[in-house]
Amino acid sequence: MAGVANSVLDHSQEQGSKRSRRSGLTLRDAQENIYSFLLSIVKQWEPEDVLNQFQQLFFEYGETASSDVSAAMYTLLFSNDENEFHNTLKRSCYILINNWEVSRQYNSIQALVDQFDQPNLFRYTVSPTLRRLREWMLDFIESGDFQELKLFVARFAGEIDTGPWTSRYTSYLLVPQYTNIENPVEQREAARALSRKLKDRYKMELALYTAHSHQNSVDGENQPKNPTVLGEGALRLIKAIVARKGQFGYKNLARLFLEQVKDLSYANFKKSLVEYLTYSVKQPEVVKTLRQHLSQNLDRLYIERDQDPVDTSLQLRTCNRMIDCLMTEDQRSPSALFTLLLSQSSSILLAILLLKLVLISKSSHHYLEARIADLIRYYEQFPRDQCSWVINFLEVFQVTFAIHAENVEYNLIAPGQSPEQAAQAYEQKLWSKEEIEACRIFSRMISAQDTNTETSS
Fold first, then answer.
1. pLDDT of the residue at 352
2. Predicted pLDDT of residue 66
3. pTM assigned to the model
4. What is the DSSP string of 288-332?
5. Which of 49, 106, 192, 408 has a beta carbon 3.0–4.6 Å from 156's, enabling a disulfide?
6. Where are the domains of the chain?
């Protein structure tokens, strides 16, 4: 029986090779034919018909509306390259998803993913070609690529707000998808757009919540929701972060640091970096721990460049290594310093350290968010009640970076002050705890055209 099957397979491969040679298709040609076909029909056909063609092409190996595409699929299967098949399938999915999102065909996007959950893939077949196709499809379903696809589509099914605890941080989980240059351009663009949309929604919700948080007269049902899970602690956190602005703020501190180190050797830059990061940290024991860990990492970092001036590339790589030190050094599990700081309830301190690094190296922002994604993936294996301290850090991190985003502005308003007077006050004073408690929060979203939607409390 095995001999008959092998004979059939050999015959099919021989026929496939002849067919490919007759059509003159290379593997790359076959892939482009499939992409062009899907792009054409998704713009012209009804979604139901497009889904049927996708089913015929990738699940049933049946005839499609285009003989060229059928030949292309034959070439793809008999190239005997499962990795290229997965790449083709993945890119095909994102071609359909991106176009359906633009036309708001959200149900079709969910239907596309639902197609992968069908018993036909497990049924026995005597066809060697169909058996290979089904095996490759099942491998794809078990792959990280399909998990990324489901993560993206979860938004349309409402699972981002109702799914597992990690779904709250989808905007970060999408970052590795659009920073990985090996992913198809359609996937990268889709992931980048969704991540940005989720972050903008969070910033808007946070601004609205803080703006109306003092208005007890507002109907509870119409009260803007708290987008964090910090409860009332979110307002105290926002006030504490916003209070550090003006000449005492993190942005000015970063600007001053960059001015001071621009003519230093790399060895002296590393020493100054430790001072910059630990500046204004008030707990002596924490400062000692930070200096020890940071210095140990920096002392052995790029030592062959110690006498060189610091260029942009070297500064970027150094800041990225410090992010590794604070987050995850193997991009899979938490670093010793990450665990230590959070075990000491230093979530705010850790978030501020990361903010300081990004303020002197803006290009490190995506790298930082990718490391956040690594840690979320690590901790998702544990139930929510075992990850409360990690969740607290993630919430603090989101609030901290939302406040310091370029398209949003927060100010504290003392009793009797206008927003304009409050903005001027930041340049002249450092707020006390009592003054912070008495203040309200003024926030506004700033558009690209420098127009803004203002909300005040």
1. 95
2. 81
3. 0.81
4. HHHHHHHHHHHHTSSGGGTTSBP-HHHHHHHHHHHHHHHS-SSSS
5. 106
6. 2-157, 227-406
